[in-house]
């Protein structure tokens, strides 16, 4: 489990988005309980927004308005049809800890420019060679 945010920083009925390795995690507080899901909408891969939960303690996608349960990730209203992935979460010494498992593993390295078919990274475009 990875430490994320102080429990006291989460207002009841609100959520935050936290990066754990390669995983964007939505952490929601409902009453005195915390829940963690993927923070990426399953409809069009948009990041869900931090802030107050929608009525019914649901997470609303800012793009097309899908509603998800932060408790079990289920879809309450489309257009999304696939549930959010959930992660175990608990409070340890006043800090929310989340286990994202292999979802937090680092992304594969960018291919080397010498790799056949590889394109230069955006960071190297337009910069003079040193
Ligand atoms: S991207 Fe979330 S509902 Fe469409």
Terminal Cα span: 42 Å
Biggest sheet strand order reads: 5-2-3-4-9
- Protein structure class: mainly beta
Using the alpha-carbon principal axes, give the shape.
Answer: globular
- Record field, number of beta strands: 11
Q: Which H/E pattern describes the elements? A: EEEEEEEEEEE
Question: Which features characterize this protein?
Answer:
binds FE2/S2 (inorganic) cluster; 130 residues; 35% strand; disordered C terminus; five-stranded antiparallel β-sheet; three-stranded antiparallel β-sheet; mainly beta; Rieske Iron-sulfur Protein; globular
Question: Nutshell version of this structure?
Answer:
This protein is mostly beta strands. It has strands spanning 2-6, 14-20, 23-30, 33-38, 51-52, 59-60, 67-68, 75-77, 86-87, 89-92, 95-98. Strand 7 (67-68) and strand 8 (75-77) form a beta hairpin.
Describe the structure.
The chain is mostly beta strands and 130 residues long. It has one domain: Rieske Iron-sulfur Protein, CATH 2.102.10. It is 0% helix and 35% strand. It contains no helices and 11 strands. The strands form 3 sheets. Strands 5-2-3-4-9 form a 5-stranded antiparallel sheet, with no helix packed on it. Strand 10 and strand 11 form a beta hairpin. It is globular and about 40 Å long. The protein starts with a strand and ends in a 32-residue tail after the last strand. The site of FE2/S2 (inorganic) cluster has 10 residues, from loops.
